[in-house]
Amino acid sequence: MCKFLIFFLLSCPVLLSSISATDTIRLNMQAYMENYLQDKDGKWVDTYNYGILSLDFGDFQFSHVTNAMQMQGTDPNGMQYWDGFTVCTNGDDKDYGYAGSSTDWVTHQWGCMAGGGLDSLWRFVKGAPYLVGYWGYNYEEEGVRSLRVDFADGMTHLPLGIWVCNHPWPYYGIQHDDAFAHSFADNGSQFRLIIHGLDEEEKDTGMPIMHKLAWFHNNELDISSNWHWIDLRSLGQVNAIYFTMESTDASGVLGMNTAAFFCFGGMEMLEHIDMIGRPAGLEAEPIDEHSVKVTWKNVDEAVYYRLYVDSMLVDSTETNKYTFTGLETYTSYRFFAEAVSATGERSDWGYVQARTKDLTPPTPPTNLRTIEVGMYKIVLTWDAGTDNVGVGRYVVYVNGKKYSRPQYTTITITGLDPGTDYLIEVETLDTSDNPSERASIQVTTTTTTPTAIEQTSAQGSRNIYTIHGQSLPQKNMQRGQVYIVQKGNETTKQIIQ
User: Fold this and answer.
1) Which pTM value belongs to this model?
2) pLDDT of res. 14
3) What angle is formed at CA 494 by the lines to CA 490 and CA 497, rounded to 5 degrees?
């Protein structure tokens, strides 16, 4: 019996009666490697083979995704792609990147900073197999868990823990940049692996566990090249686990800049343990800025439920619903429910995450003013509105019709008519899309004469000029020159002969 299991038995007395050494299930990749032929680079030869949806190692199944279009010959770029897990043995820990480039990493995705995997007794052995995981967050947005571990028997199990290690691509990218990643140099910068549990209804359950793969703090980078054990017992009994990743080095809709790889060396879990059922099917409904209503399916053996917010006990109830109050505005919380039997036995935690509402509108922009007024355009600016959470953008109206949704406090309104009065209004939108009252400039009159000639570029031996006006002015025209005349939304080119 391993030392870890002994510690588990001593620290979890509720489970003592149903645990023995034979209950432990341990991943042993080496026993199944004959099914996964390796090439000269130490990678599984079927990594890009479309149609293989999982890697099977006895009691454990690991997700695998490839690019279907490429394998069917319909990808116009002829690109190959894999996602999820692949199995490797090469243990390459070399640096194939440098600031501004990631080209060589594409053909060297199969390494591991520890230099190799772990055997069935969790001993480091160079040449032992390990898994490389790549997180495809685009799949995650579609509800597909790209990094997923299922149990072959379809039963619930209690994960004890897993072994993980840094992959060379993010390891070196965090230290010196690559084509996408930026090096960590600010305190608080983190690259994290997050482990989630799934129940029988494919809903998140238990408390997600976060592991720092890299962390810049106290003005130093904390990043390891060794295998590390992550305790998963707080997930409770689950039907599957899956992984996501986070990095403070990210670019909005494009996601993480840090390469989304990690290495997986082993896993241990217990067989299904008979105990009071976990509250399942948790649903959260934000009520207002300070409260969220949570409901769950009734547990037959439960006489009451204990309620937690972000793992802190806050109350108990005898019903299968509860409204959490006293919360912060527009803030994300993790809510947990725990069933308790008549004998005091406590279940695993049911889990749901939700954000409180933001119902407070922002203040309107102030000091609306024009920077430029022409025949066909108006350049407008204003002082920013404010909000209790945050300003998202603005909405500009022209004569009562929505014109644009700018993010900044200056806008150029084009396509206007000369000599015409316009009512321009601007409202603030906060990050929850609550609108403010509208601020307005009551009347603005466009001009009726052409504006000055502006040279914009050259075309061969001819210079090109742009004129904002109804017609070309008679003076200052040069023969052989090209003029771009803008009339409202129409643009014409004229050459002076």
Assistant:
1) 0.69
2) 34
3) 165
